[in-house]
């Protein structure tokens, strides 16, 4: 059997200080993971709103293509945040408000041979303004 030098003892486990330090490091790591998860959720919801706004501009272009005579006269243009029940744009405006924010006011303008669809809304989760602008030729 080998003799150990005097004053050195074999360690028999972990001390309370080592356990507390490891718990602290683990806690900091878990807080970082929670912060990343929260940030990911905010960005995912904002991305969903932007995607739905783009899809809804495509839906409006299909409304225009369904009634080309009225579309070529500029009848689908509006800026009153309400649209026209007769042409189907009122339901479209409600869909936009439901997909983005209730106070969103989409504007459709007619400029000679094309429509410009503009959807603006604020995103308080990210503290940013979102805007989708699409041009559609009927």
Summarize the structure.
This protein has helices at 16-66, 68-72, 89-99; strands spanning 107-111, 114-123, 128-136. With 138 residues, the chain is an alpha+beta fold. It has a domain at 48-136.
Tell me what you see in this structure.
With 138 residues, the chain is α+β, with helices and mostly antiparallel strands. The chain has a domain at 48-136. Helices cover 49% and strands 17% of the residues. It has helices at residues 16-66, 68-72, 89-99, and strands at 107-111, 114-123, 128-136. A three-stranded antiparallel beta sheet has the order 1-2-3, with helices on one face. The longest helix is centred in the N-terminal third of the chain and has 51 residues, at 16-66. The radius of gyration is 30 Å and the shape is rod-shaped. The termini are far apart.
Please supply descriptive tags for the structure shown above:
138 residues; alpha+beta
Task: Report the principal-axis shape.
Answer: rod-shaped
Strand order across the biggest sheet? 1-2-3
Number of H/I helices: 3
Low-pLDDT runs of 5+ residues are none
- Structural class call reads alpha+beta
Strand proportion? 15-25%
Q: What is the C-alpha radius of gyration, as a whole number of Å?
A: 30 Å
- Total number of strands: 3
Distance between the termini: 95 Å
Break the fold down into its secondary structure elements and pairings.
Elements lengths: L15 H51 L1 H5 L16 H11 L7 E5 L2 E10 L4 E9 L2
Antiparallel strand pairs: 1-2, 2-3
Helix pairs in contact: 1-3
